Amino acid sequence: MTEEILVLGATGKTGRRVVRTLEAAGATLRKASRATGFDWNDQSTWKQFLHGATAAYLIAPEDPAAASPFVELAAASGLRRVVLLSGRGLDQIPPDVFRGMHAAEKAVTSSDLPWTVLRANNFHQNFSEQVWQPEIDAGRLSLPVDDTPEPFVDVQDIAEVAALALTTDDHQGRIYDLTGPEGVTFATAVAKIAAATGRTIELVKLTPAEYREALLAQGAPEEVTTELNGMFESMRKGKLATPTDDVARLLNRPATSFDAYVSETWR
């Protein structure tokens, strides 16, 4: 039987790289995004993507109520593998923070599906693709950070680990913590990007209250401000600061360093 792999968020930061990696390996794919008719808020759109698929790359929905019905339908559709992208340290974060991720992990790990969970640190590409990119481009990044290092992970490394787990049976029931090879402070990260681009980029260290007010002024919902402040609090406490060797061990090569990312991206 021909395997068909469903990739949710196929045009997103991780999804499009999962697509590219799997296509390079000759896999047959189903690409799910709003552009192809998939809608987390409309359950009637789910079945056409799941029916006949053998594996799925899953990104948690924003609405936690959608996680369990989707996973139940995935199990009923006969998936043989599901790989969920989640967040590093989610098991140490209160359930009211990143509720979609909590709901997705619970739904996947309590199901009868053969599953793998990828818990990732902040991405290298957050500096260059959405998220912090507008502020980096404007020369001033304002975040509630201190000098605690963050082992940023490269999205292509995540994609390659995901492709491995989607196409082999060796990773079922595993939770992997995906990080870069070393911790880098935000100040150092910004300085490296500034040096590579020849521009002045300032890092402004906000208090959590200042960050909340800044997000609200940008139109972010209160729930989002709570989630992001919760994440940064975990980072400041060092809960996400220690690198792991999961990427290197799984891919049989070193994880991509921040320096390599900067050299490749900010030329």
Map the helices and strands.
Blueprint: E1 4-8, H1 15-24, E2 28-32, H2 47-50, E3 55-59, H3 67-76, E4 81-87, H4 99-109, E5 115-120, H5 133-138, E6 140-143, H6 155-167, E7 174-178, H7 186-197, E8 202-205, H8 208-217, H9 222-236, H10 246-251, H11 258-265
Parallel strand pairs: 1-2, 1-3, 3-4, 4-5, 5-7, 6-8
Helix pairs in contact: 1-6, 3-4, 7-11, 8-9
If you had to describe this structure to a student in words, what would you say it looks like?
- Residues 9-166 form the NAD(P)-binding domain.
- The chain has 267 residues and is of the alpha/beta class.
- The chain has a domain at 4-123 and 153-179 and 242-255: Rossmann fold, CATH 3.40.50.720.
- It is 39% helix and 15% strand.
- The strands form two sheets. It has a six-stranded parallel β-sheet with strand order 2-1-3-4-5-7, with helices on both faces.
- Helix 3 links the parallel strand 3 (55-59) and strand 4.
- Helix 1 (15-24) crosses helix 6 (155-167) and helix 3 (67-76) runs parallel beside helix 4.
- The protein is globular.
